[in-house]
Amino acid sequence: MANDYHIPVLAREAIEALDIRTDGMYIDATLGGGGYSEMILMYSPSIKLYGFDTDPQAIGYASKKLEKFSDRFKIIAENFSDLRDALAKEHVKQISGIVYDLGVSSRQLDTTSIGLSYRFDAPLDMRLDPRLARSAMDIIATTTADELKHIFGMYGEEPMSGRIARWIVEARQVKPIKTTHELAAIVTQGIREDKKNSTLSRIFQALRIEVNDELGSLRSSLEQALELLEVGGRIVVVSYHSLEDRIVKDFFASYANPKVVEGSLESLRQSIDEKKARLRLITKKPIVPSDEEVSRNPRARSAKMRVAEKK
Ligand SMILES: C[S@@+](CC[C@H](N)C(=O)[O-])C[C@H]1O[C@@H](n2cnc3c(N)ncnc32)[C@H](O)[C@@H]1O
Fold first, then answer.
1. Which of 55, 233, 235, 309 is the most buried (most CB within 10 A)?
2. Bridge-partner residues for 235, per DSSP?
3. 105 CA to middle of ligand 1, Å?
Protein backbone atom coordinates (compact mmCIF):
# COMPACT_ATOMS: atom_id res chain seq x y z
CA MET A 1 0.00 0.00 0.00
CA ALA A 2 1.40 3.43 -0.83
CA ASN A 3 1.66 6.15 1.82
CA ASP A 4 -1.50 7.91 0.67
CA TYR A 5 -2.92 7.86 4.21
CA HIS A 6 0.00 9.35 6.13
CA ILE A 7 3.73 9.61 5.48
CA PRO A 8 5.40 8.37 8.69
CA VAL A 9 7.70 10.96 10.26
CA LEU A 10 11.13 10.04 11.73
CA ALA A 11 10.13 6.42 11.17
CA ARG A 12 13.56 4.85 10.71
CA GLU A 13 14.92 6.86 13.65
CA ALA A 14 11.99 5.91 15.92
CA ILE A 15 12.21 2.19 15.15
CA GLU A 16 16.00 2.18 15.62
CA ALA A 17 15.56 4.03 18.91
CA LEU A 18 13.26 1.27 20.19
CA ASP A 19 16.33 -1.03 20.12
CA ILE A 20 14.03 -3.92 19.30
CA ARG A 21 14.39 -7.32 20.92
CA THR A 22 13.46 -9.88 18.26
CA ASP A 23 11.06 -11.83 20.46
CA GLY A 24 9.68 -8.79 22.30
CA MET A 25 6.19 -7.49 23.00
CA TYR A 26 5.82 -3.93 21.65
CA ILE A 27 3.19 -1.20 21.75
CA ASP A 28 2.46 1.34 19.03
CA ALA A 29 0.47 3.85 21.08
CA THR A 30 -0.60 5.82 17.99
CA LEU A 31 -1.33 3.39 15.18
CA GLY A 32 -2.56 5.92 12.56
CA GLY A 33 -1.83 4.59 9.07
CA GLY A 34 0.19 1.73 10.56
CA GLY A 35 3.54 2.93 9.18
CA TYR A 36 5.49 2.46 12.41
CA SER A 37 3.64 -0.77 13.25
CA GLU A 38 4.52 -2.30 9.91
CA MET A 39 8.20 -1.55 10.40
CA ILE A 40 8.20 -3.07 13.88
CA LEU A 41 6.38 -6.20 12.71
CA MET A 42 8.74 -6.61 9.77
CA TYR A 43 11.76 -6.37 12.04
CA SER A 44 11.39 -9.98 13.14
CA PRO A 45 8.75 -12.72 12.68
CA SER A 46 8.55 -13.39 16.43
CA ILE A 47 7.68 -9.85 17.56
CA LYS A 48 4.22 -9.27 19.02
CA LEU A 49 2.59 -5.86 18.74
CA TYR A 50 -0.51 -4.05 20.01
CA GLY A 51 -1.55 -0.84 18.24
CA PHE A 52 -3.74 1.79 19.95
CA ASP A 53 -5.98 4.29 18.16
CA THR A 54 -9.47 5.64 18.68
CA ASP A 55 -10.13 6.92 15.18
CA PRO A 56 -12.37 4.45 13.29
CA GLN A 57 -10.84 5.51 9.96
CA ALA A 58 -7.29 4.81 11.15
CA ILE A 59 -8.37 1.48 12.63
CA GLY A 60 -10.10 0.44 9.40
CA TYR A 61 -7.16 1.44 7.24
CA ALA A 62 -4.44 -0.08 9.43
CA SER A 63 -6.28 -3.34 10.01
CA LYS A 64 -6.39 -3.94 6.25
CA LYS A 65 -2.81 -2.86 5.72
CA LEU A 66 -1.51 -5.12 8.50
CA GLU A 67 -3.86 -8.07 7.90
CA LYS A 68 -0.99 -10.42 7.07
CA PHE A 69 0.39 -9.98 10.60
CA SER A 70 -2.89 -10.81 12.34
CA ASP A 71 -1.43 -13.81 14.23
CA ARG A 72 0.89 -11.47 16.19
CA PHE A 73 -0.68 -8.05 15.84
CA LYS A 74 -3.86 -6.70 17.39
CA ILE A 75 -5.54 -3.31 17.35
CA ILE A 76 -6.89 -1.91 20.62
CA ALA A 77 -9.52 0.74 19.91
CA GLU A 78 -8.84 2.71 23.08
CA ASN A 79 -7.10 5.92 24.12
CA PHE A 80 -3.47 5.36 25.07
CA SER A 81 -4.35 6.77 28.47
CA ASP A 82 -6.07 3.40 29.06
CA LEU A 83 -2.83 1.53 28.41
CA ARG A 84 -2.68 -0.45 31.66
CA ASP A 85 -6.30 -1.59 31.75
CA ALA A 86 -6.53 -2.32 28.03
CA LEU A 87 -3.37 -4.47 28.16
CA ALA A 88 -4.55 -6.19 31.34
CA LYS A 89 -7.62 -7.35 29.40
CA GLU A 90 -5.16 -8.95 26.96
CA HIS A 91 -3.27 -10.50 29.91
CA VAL A 92 -0.21 -8.37 29.12
CA LYS A 93 1.64 -7.31 32.26
CA GLN A 94 5.00 -6.36 30.80
CA ILE A 95 6.13 -4.72 27.56
CA SER A 96 9.51 -4.56 25.79
CA GLY A 97 9.03 -1.06 24.40
CA ILE A 98 6.49 1.57 23.37
CA VAL A 99 6.43 4.24 20.70
CA TYR A 100 4.23 7.35 20.50
CA ASP A 101 3.88 9.40 17.30
CA LEU A 102 1.63 12.08 18.72
CA GLY A 103 -1.05 14.29 17.26
CA VAL A 104 -3.01 13.61 14.13
CA SER A 105 -2.34 11.92 10.80
CA SER A 106 -2.34 13.68 7.44
CA ARG A 107 -5.58 11.87 6.65
CA GLN A 108 -7.26 13.32 9.74
CA LEU A 109 -6.06 16.83 8.87
CA ASP A 110 -7.14 16.55 5.26
CA THR A 111 -10.48 14.95 5.94
CA THR A 112 -13.46 17.23 6.12
CA SER A 113 -15.49 15.08 8.47
CA ILE A 114 -14.25 16.16 11.93
CA GLY A 115 -13.18 19.74 11.29
CA LEU A 116 -9.56 19.68 12.50
CA SER A 117 -8.39 22.14 9.87
CA TYR A 118 -9.59 25.68 9.22
CA ARG A 119 -8.74 25.13 5.55
CA PHE A 120 -11.87 23.03 4.96
CA ASP A 121 -15.40 23.97 5.90
CA ALA A 122 -16.75 21.25 8.19
CA PRO A 123 -18.79 20.77 11.36
CA LEU A 124 -16.82 21.96 14.38
CA ASP A 125 -16.24 18.56 15.97
CA MET A 126 -12.51 17.69 16.45
CA ARG A 127 -13.14 14.46 18.42
CA LEU A 128 -10.46 11.90 17.51
CA ASP A 129 -12.63 9.43 19.39
CA PRO A 130 -16.29 9.73 18.33
CA ARG A 131 -17.30 8.32 21.75
CA LEU A 132 -16.11 11.47 23.55
CA ALA A 133 -18.96 13.45 25.06
CA ARG A 134 -17.85 16.99 24.21
CA SER A 135 -17.08 18.31 20.71
CA ALA A 136 -15.37 21.60 19.80
CA MET A 137 -18.83 22.98 19.00
CA ASP A 138 -19.98 22.24 22.57
CA ILE A 139 -16.92 23.97 24.02
CA ILE A 140 -17.34 27.04 21.79
CA ALA A 141 -21.06 27.20 22.71
CA THR A 142 -20.83 26.79 26.47
CA THR A 143 -17.41 27.80 27.81
CA THR A 144 -17.04 31.19 29.52
CA ALA A 145 -14.83 33.90 28.01
CA ASP A 146 -12.31 33.41 30.82
CA GLU A 147 -12.08 29.69 30.23
CA LEU A 148 -11.76 30.16 26.45
CA LYS A 149 -8.99 32.67 27.06
CA HIS A 150 -7.26 30.10 29.24
CA ILE A 151 -7.60 27.35 26.60
CA PHE A 152 -6.25 29.55 23.78
CA GLY A 153 -3.45 30.98 25.92
CA MET A 154 -2.36 27.74 27.47
CA TYR A 155 -2.77 25.23 24.62
CA GLY A 156 -2.27 27.58 21.67
CA GLU A 157 0.17 30.03 23.30
CA GLU A 158 -2.00 32.66 21.58
CA PRO A 159 -1.04 36.24 22.50
CA MET A 160 -4.52 37.62 21.63
CA SER A 161 -6.37 34.91 23.58
CA GLY A 162 -8.50 37.33 25.64
CA ARG A 163 -9.72 39.37 22.69
CA ILE A 164 -10.48 36.29 20.58
CA ALA A 165 -12.42 34.71 23.47
CA ARG A 166 -14.55 37.88 23.73
CA TRP A 167 -15.26 37.94 19.98
CA ILE A 168 -16.47 34.33 20.20
CA VAL A 169 -18.76 35.04 23.16
CA GLU A 170 -20.24 38.10 21.39
CA ALA A 171 -20.77 36.20 18.14
CA ARG A 172 -22.46 33.18 19.75
CA GLN A 173 -25.05 35.48 21.37
CA VAL A 174 -26.18 36.39 17.85
CA LYS A 175 -26.00 32.93 16.27
CA PRO A 176 -24.58 29.49 17.22
CA ILE A 177 -21.08 28.80 15.81
CA LYS A 178 -21.31 25.46 14.07
CA THR A 179 -18.61 25.17 11.43
CA THR A 180 -14.85 25.63 11.04
CA HIS A 181 -15.30 28.52 8.61
CA GLU A 182 -17.79 30.30 10.88
CA LEU A 183 -15.30 30.06 13.74
CA ALA A 184 -12.38 31.09 11.49
CA ALA A 185 -14.23 34.24 10.37
CA ILE A 186 -14.91 35.27 13.99
CA VAL A 187 -11.37 34.50 15.20
CA THR A 188 -9.71 36.52 12.42
CA GLN A 189 -12.11 39.49 12.34
CA GLY A 190 -9.60 41.91 13.88
CA ILE A 191 -6.36 40.18 12.86
CA ARG A 192 -3.93 41.50 10.25
CA GLU A 193 -4.08 39.64 6.95
CA ASP A 194 -0.52 38.28 7.21
CA LYS A 195 -1.16 36.95 10.75
CA LYS A 196 -4.47 35.23 10.08
CA ASN A 197 -3.14 31.75 9.27
CA SER A 198 -0.79 31.52 12.25
CA THR A 199 -3.56 32.73 14.58
CA LEU A 200 -5.97 30.16 13.18
CA SER A 201 -3.37 27.38 13.57
CA ARG A 202 -2.92 28.28 17.25
CA ILE A 203 -6.65 28.51 17.99
CA PHE A 204 -7.49 25.27 16.19
CA GLN A 205 -4.60 23.47 17.90
CA ALA A 206 -5.75 24.72 21.30
CA LEU A 207 -9.32 23.53 20.73
CA ARG A 208 -8.16 20.13 19.52
CA ILE A 209 -5.98 19.67 22.60
CA GLU A 210 -8.87 20.62 24.88
CA VAL A 211 -11.46 18.42 23.13
CA ASN A 212 -9.22 15.35 23.25
CA ASP A 213 -7.45 16.10 26.57
CA GLU A 214 -4.25 15.44 24.65
CA LEU A 215 -1.80 16.60 27.30
CA GLY A 216 -3.53 14.86 30.22
CA SER A 217 -3.71 11.61 28.25
CA LEU A 218 -0.02 11.79 27.40
CA ARG A 219 1.08 12.40 30.99
CA SER A 220 -1.04 9.56 32.30
CA SER A 221 0.03 7.15 29.57
CA LEU A 222 3.75 7.80 30.11
CA GLU A 223 3.37 6.95 33.81
CA GLN A 224 1.63 3.68 32.94
CA ALA A 225 4.22 2.85 30.25
CA LEU A 226 7.03 3.23 32.77
CA GLU A 227 5.31 0.75 35.11
CA LEU A 228 4.75 -1.78 32.32
CA LEU A 229 8.22 -1.59 30.75
CA GLU A 230 10.75 -4.33 31.37
CA VAL A 231 14.25 -3.29 32.40
CA GLY A 232 16.15 -2.22 29.29
CA GLY A 233 12.86 -1.45 27.49
CA ARG A 234 12.49 1.91 25.79
CA ILE A 235 9.94 4.69 25.51
CA VAL A 236 10.18 6.60 22.23
CA VAL A 237 8.09 9.74 21.75
CA VAL A 238 7.76 11.85 18.61
CA SER A 239 5.95 15.13 19.33
CA TYR A 240 4.89 18.07 17.19
CA HIS A 241 4.51 21.07 19.47
CA SER A 242 6.33 22.56 22.40
CA LEU A 243 3.68 21.66 25.01
CA GLU A 244 3.88 17.95 24.21
CA ASP A 245 7.66 18.06 24.03
CA ARG A 246 7.83 19.76 27.43
CA ILE A 247 5.69 17.06 29.03
CA VAL A 248 7.94 14.33 27.63
CA LYS A 249 11.14 16.18 28.55
CA ASP A 250 9.96 16.84 32.12
CA PHE A 251 8.65 13.29 32.56
CA PHE A 252 11.92 11.75 31.41
CA ALA A 253 13.98 14.18 33.50
CA SER A 254 11.96 13.56 36.66
CA TYR A 255 12.69 9.80 36.52
CA ALA A 256 16.23 10.02 35.08
CA ASN A 257 17.37 12.67 37.55
CA PRO A 258 15.08 12.33 40.58
CA LYS A 259 15.57 15.20 42.99
CA VAL A 260 15.80 14.84 46.74
CA VAL A 261 15.58 17.71 49.17
CA GLU A 262 18.30 17.74 51.82
CA GLY A 263 19.51 19.94 54.62
CA SER A 264 17.87 21.72 57.49
CA LEU A 265 14.89 24.05 57.26
CA GLU A 266 17.25 27.02 57.10
CA SER A 267 19.33 25.69 54.21
CA LEU A 268 17.32 23.35 52.04
CA ARG A 269 19.24 21.95 49.08
CA GLN A 270 18.05 19.94 46.13
CA SER A 271 20.30 17.23 44.78
CA ILE A 272 19.90 14.34 42.38
CA ASP A 273 19.68 10.84 43.81
CA GLU A 274 21.14 8.57 41.10
CA LYS A 275 20.13 5.42 42.99
CA LYS A 276 16.44 6.33 42.70
CA ALA A 277 16.60 6.86 38.90
CA ARG A 278 14.17 4.65 36.99
CA LEU A 279 15.01 5.89 33.51
CA ARG A 280 18.21 6.51 31.57
CA LEU A 281 18.09 9.28 28.97
CA ILE A 282 19.10 8.01 25.53
CA THR A 283 18.61 11.43 23.89
CA LYS A 284 19.98 14.39 25.83
CA LYS A 285 18.72 16.69 23.07
CA PRO A 286 15.71 15.80 20.90
CA ILE A 287 16.32 14.19 17.49
CA VAL A 288 14.80 16.19 14.61
CA PRO A 289 14.16 15.20 10.98
CA SER A 290 16.84 15.77 8.37
CA ASP A 291 16.48 18.63 5.85
CA GLU A 292 15.91 15.95 3.24
CA GLU A 293 12.94 14.51 5.18
CA VAL A 294 11.41 17.96 5.73
CA SER A 295 11.68 18.83 2.05
CA ARG A 296 10.05 15.50 1.14
CA ASN A 297 7.40 15.82 3.86
CA PRO A 298 6.82 19.38 5.17
CA ARG A 299 4.61 18.01 7.99
CA ALA A 300 7.78 16.60 9.55
CA ARG A 301 9.22 20.07 10.16
CA SER A 302 8.13 20.48 13.79
CA ALA A 303 8.83 16.87 14.88
CA LYS A 304 11.05 16.16 17.87
CA MET A 305 11.92 12.71 19.17
CA ARG A 306 12.98 11.85 22.73
CA VAL A 307 13.99 8.42 23.99
CA ALA A 308 14.53 6.93 27.45
CA GLU A 309 15.31 3.44 28.75
CA LYS A 310 14.01 1.74 31.89
CA LYS A 311 16.70 1.09 34.48
C1 LIG B 1 0.65 11.02 13.71
S2 LIG B 1 -0.53 9.76 13.65
C3 LIG B 1 0.44 8.30 13.76
C4 LIG B 1 0.99 7.85 12.45
C5 LIG B 1 1.70 6.51 12.50
N6 LIG B 1 2.93 6.56 13.25
C7 LIG B 1 2.00 5.99 11.10
O8 LIG B 1 3.15 5.65 10.83
O9 LIG B 1 1.06 5.93 10.28
C10 LIG B 1 -1.27 9.81 15.22
C11 LIG B 1 -2.42 8.83 15.42
O12 LIG B 1 -2.58 8.69 16.84
C13 LIG B 1 -3.95 8.69 17.16
N14 LIG B 1 -4.05 9.23 18.53
C15 LIG B 1 -3.85 10.50 18.93
N16 LIG B 1 -4.03 10.59 20.26
C17 LIG B 1 -4.34 9.35 20.70
C18 LIG B 1 -4.64 8.80 21.99
N19 LIG B 1 -4.65 9.57 23.08
N20 LIG B 1 -4.91 7.48 22.08
C21 LIG B 1 -4.90 6.69 20.97
N22 LIG B 1 -4.61 7.16 19.73
C23 LIG B 1 -4.35 8.47 19.59
C24 LIG B 1 -4.60 9.57 16.12
O25 LIG B 1 -5.96 9.21 15.95
C26 LIG B 1 -3.73 9.27 14.87
O27 LIG B 1 -4.31 8.26 14.09
1. 235
2. 98, 308
3. 7
